[in-house]
């Protein structure tokens, strides 16, 4: 990681510390914090320890001429920056260092962070919506939401921060919204959305269209077989043309195909 390139993305973050009290440049501390976190640091003391263990390397990069700051200083400095500003810088930086080729899959999903609920302090669990680049296996960006129900508003905000041109964006049923699909298409991407009963009209239309389509009409077919727990499970995935559905649901911008999963299960007795 080049320090000059890092500064291009994070050097715009406002430093709210009093100038006459600054001993360590903000970008130096941000560089250390990000680097240590990538290396597995889980707290402020870990970040300080990582810095002390690699102090010669950091100083060779022109950083921390006066030595590595203490963990309290690191924590106070990071606490002074605007989270949203850092978040935007981080997402832009991640997109710059992560090469997304045309057709890359970006999976957007919401998760509740483990052990984030604090009963004593009455702090609710932290719920995050993340964008994961499947090929590169890195998180491109994430936003915190108040609850899972707020994913619908968080997903458009996260998409607006990402360059998804030429990429396929997959989202579960929570994100199966006309406005989200339209935004993805407007930003130059394609969408893969799960259809469930939270969109009853669409789900009914899909079921009606599929009832009149045979698997022989599949444009693509993939099979997957698993064996375990005393049974054999097989799943077939079919991709079918969506012309009939397009005429019924013209408001779904860019709709081209339907994907269908068909599951089979055979137990120990041979019963299917």
Automatic annotation (TrEMBL):
Residues 103-219 form the Transposase IS4-like domain. One of its GO terms (biological process) is DNA transposition. Residues 9-94 form the H repeat-associated protein N-terminal domain. It holds the Pfam family DDE_Tnp_1. Signal peptide: none annotated. One of its GO terms (molecular function) is transposase activity. Belongs to the transposase 11 family. This is Transposase.
